[in-house]
User: What shape does this take?
Amino acid sequence: MTIERVAIIGLGLLGGSIGLAVQKHLPGVATAGYDADPDVRARARERGLTAVVADRPVEAVEKADLVILCVPVGAMGEAARAIAPALGEDTIVSDVGSSKESTYSALSEALPHHHVIPAHPVAGTEESGPDAGFASLFHRRWCIVTPPEGADPAKVAALVTFWEDLGALVETMDAGHHDRVLAVTSHIPHLIAYTIVGTASDLEQVTRSEVIKFSAGGFRDFTRIAASDPTMWRDVFLNNREAVLEMLDRFLTDLALMREAIRAEDGETMFDWFTRTRAIRRGIVAIGQDDARPDFGRKDHD
Amino acid sequence: MTIERVAIIGLGLLGGSIGLAVQKHLPGVATAGYDADPDVRARARERGLTAVVADRPVEAVEKADLVILCVPVGAMGEAARAIAPALGEDTIVSDVGSSKESTYSALSEALPHHHVIPAHPVAGTEESGPDAGFASLFHRRWCIVTPPEGADPAKVAALVTFWEDLGALVETMDAGHHDRVLAVTSHIPHLIAYTIVGTASDLEQVTRSEVIKFSAGGFRDFTRIAASDPTMWRDVFLNNREAVLEMLDRFLTDLALMREAIRAEDGETMFDWFTRTRAIRRGIVAIGQDDARPDFGRKDHD
Ligand SMILES: NC(=O)c1ccc[n+]([C@@H]2O[C@H](COP(=O)([O-])OP(=O)(O)OC[C@H]3O[C@@H](n4cnc5c(N)ncnc54)[C@H](OP(=O)(O)O)[C@@H]3O)[C@@H](O)[C@H]2O)c1
Ligand SMILES: NC(=O)c1ccc[n+]([C@@H]2O[C@H](COP(=O)([O-])OP(=O)(O)OC[C@H]3O[C@@H](n4cnc5c(N)ncnc54)[C@H](OP(=O)(O)O)[C@@H]3O)[C@@H](O)[C@H]2O)c1
Assistant: This one.
């Protein structure tokens, strides 16, 4: 099948970026969008995030070959119910939610007779809203597609091609495995960052302005991810609860080991641990998912 | 007093950057350096990190008005003893160590009759060694000077001016307070990052290559700081043990709260916490210690 019309529900960072990327990379494909918030729709029209911004969800999805839900994972079911009446029989319904088992449940429950094929582009920033999106967000970033059992192979292939056309690298896996992988590579890092930034802002002996001033020692990298959207992240933790708790407990066990090494002044354990972790960093730089310039190539030193 | 000759012991990231910065910003000031490692000395000569690279520590510090020890905090005492015989009566002995109470003890014990004024430039990258340094490392970054009680005010002023001449913003505080502030803004973030990167590389259900591939979801920001030098960081944790354990326990208490909120599906607690942490981020961007470009202005999307 070929995709000629794409509809995007939710015109924030992800939805807006998809809209801009389609218009850039697939100029022959028609785009329509909808967002629950009238202010977001107005801004989306100004920025031209999609060619058409509809005032009702059913209008946006009419005749679409592919609908992508770009709302917080807790809002997927509601967003799906709102478009159900206008969906074509053959339409692919996909999404960009950060957890995949719960998203699939919500979508397939709301749309039992449609072709639901969830996906998750592993690309983002700490910004959100209709001003945050940009066309190159997915370029050279991974997009994980999680086809449910029995999914139509032609439709899965069309969705994979769509993401590749936007510049992404695509991998397919099952939803449960996705949720474990992302718990480690994304959800736990966000939980830790949110926590430590909160801890730092509540100390009596160290002021908030000191924390801010001297953040260049490492802390500021945590504050960036702890500035991410609270609704999105609350929903992620509520919807990927088991995998997050499982990975969190692994982390807590290891942190207790490190704590004990410091308490016992066991330099060797620390040295060995710190040496091992460098290999992972090298792997990330080697495959181009980050770069080795000092300070990520921040230019503000000069 | 005016500083006309500077000697640098340890020609890695910090020592090399100071040498290059002095030659750039204070071209009238003579620079000499020494490093325990002959390969580092050879590379330091090639890069011209200091005008003279001596083969013995005593040669490097002869006639220096200011000596800066740029070695791991665990090596401060040894490095100080090695230069003791050649230090002038009036020489300022300073350092760049990441913990300050322990450094002051080590230096004042090794050099009881000299002017020890510790300092810590809060600027760094995850790189180390003689190739890592660059002249602008300190530009617009804070340098914390921790003058001991009874320090000669003229000498403290000279050291402050020196750092300002290299482009740094200077703040003075006592060593104990420094150690608490840095435990929060630097040492705990590094400990957490090292730990989670270790956890992630040991999972059975998620492969190392998956962790590396999908790191753009947040994890890669942790791997950067977890690629820092193991010797340096072992020494930091051994030498700022009490403040690190104190702050770590605060963090663990808060993390237990967040864990419980996830377990109990308490979305409100999460939402409130995640909303609060955004304010800290805005403070850091506002004072120019980071910038708000997506992905720190990484250019690899394009
Ligand atoms: N941000 C990231 O880094 C990232 C990365 C990968 C995947 N994701 C996933 O992408 C999805 C969207 O995230 P985002 O960062 O793009 O969030 P965002 O910028 O906040 O955009 C979401 C938009 O959806 C709207 N919305 C909420 N409920 C809706 C509904 N029922 N119908 C129509 N519109 C609705 C929101 O309006 P209101 O503001 O009025 O609620 C908002 O404008 C989430 O599922 C998230 O997990 C995010
Ligand atoms: N990296 C940062 O981000 C950062 C930021 C602020 C402050 N600091 C502090 O700066 C200091 C230096 O760190 P760095 O990152 O510059 O480390 P680095 O790049 O590893 O450089 C340290 C150099 O000192 C040498 N050395 C070790 N013991 C010595 C001795 N007794 N006499 C002479 N040279 C000796 C080392 O040689 P070998 O390799 O042979 O041991 C190495 O070449 C540490 O105290 C650290 O806490 C670091």
